[in-house]
UniProtKB/TrEMBL annotation:
InterPro entries: AB_hydrolase_1, AB_hydrolase_fold, AB_hydrolase_sf, Peptidase_S33
Gene Ontology MF annotations: aminopeptidase activity
Family that this chain belongs to: Belongs to the peptidase S33 family.
The AB hydrolase-1 domain, residue ranges: 27-271
GO BP field: proteolysis
Coiled-coil regions, chain positions: none
Protein name per UniProt: Alpha/beta hydrolase
Length: 287
């Protein structure tokens, strides 16, 4: 298979999930970031199309998937990811997760290691508590957004409004997402690509899963589970990510079979700013 083909995955509770697959080679299922966003992996899929059969999907209640009332729990999303795997007839598959999706992919690998051939953990925040990274992230966010006073003023104006139109919601998101890129001259361009198409943020999903992570991540049980994970894991970081990369050290130390690649000139979406470095790192795992 080469060209993309949209499909509907039915989760075990009946919720319909959008999915598509393309490319050729070993199976690779992608888990997008958020929570509450949608698949933004068009460029990643194209980068890997000659090396992998790439499966992309929108998480429940998000993007092109069925709008629903949740439940918004990590356990539920792990089950949905497994429904995607079963739908495409994959006994085992490599997983690639980005940001929140890295947490989801890791959680699936911990729950079902026999169903995962390799894990690619991109721009995550490790397995420690939020205190390991969130204060520095918030400070870096303000500093990087503040490097352009016009953008900062407009973002503040939109953030202070009680209600936003759909176009204003997109504009606010693009301004926020622009901080994710090291190349400040192209930051708005890159962020605009993330928002095209604009499918709307599921804020309820975002809040619930963020709150669950803040309560449950960083436990001794999680560290022990990672130490027992007998799978090849690749950690890919952009050195200029505004989330401190030191937070990921906790995961790297725990995993028994891990390799880490840091792309020095990239931010939170490393494939956007160093596509060749990203492709080289990921295809090495797929080999």
């Amino acid at each position: 298979m080469d060209g993309p083909r949209d499909e509907t995955v039915t989760a075990d509770d009946g919720v319909r999930l959008w999915a598509t697959r393309s490319g050729r080679g070993e199976p690779l299922v992608l888990c997008h970031g958020g929570p509450g966003l949608w698949d933004m992996f068009t460029d990643v899929s194209a980068l890997l199309a000659d090396r992998a059969t790439v499966v992309r999907w929108d998480q429940r209640g998000c993007g092109r998937s069925q709008r629903c009332a949740g439940p918004w729990t990590l356990e539920r999303f792990v089950a949905d990811l497994d429904s995607v795997r079963r739908h495409f007839g994959l006994r085992r598959t490599a997983l690639l997760g980005h940001s929140w999706g890295a947490q989801l992919a890791l959680s699936h690998a911990l729950a079902h290691p026999e169903r995962v051939s390799a894990l690619v953990y991109v721009a995550g925040t490790g397995i420690g508590p939020d205190a390991d990274w969130h204060p520095a992230f918030a400070e870096n966010f303000r500093e990087r957004l503040g490097d352009n006073q016009q953008r900062l003023s407009r973002w503040r104006e939109l953030t202070d409004r009680p209600r936003l139109t759909q176009d204003e919601e997109r504009e606010q998101a693009v301004l926020e997402w622009s901080v994710e890129f090291e190349d400040r001259g192209r930051a708005l361009e890159h962020a605009g690509r993330m928002a095209d198409p604009w499918l709307g943020i599921n804020d309820e999903c975002h809040r619930a899963l963020d709150e669950e992570r803040s309560r449950t991540w960083g436990t001794p049980e999680l560290y022990a589970a990672c130490r027992a994970l007998d799978l090849p894991v690749l950690i890919v970081d952009g050195a200029r990510d505004i989330r401190p990369r030191s937070a990921v050290d906790s995961l790297e130390r725990a995993l028994p079979r891990v390799r880490r690649v840091v792309l020095p000139e990239a931010g939170h979406l490393p494939w956007a700013e160093d596509p060749e470095g990203f492709r080289e790192a990921v295809t090495a795992v797929l080999r």
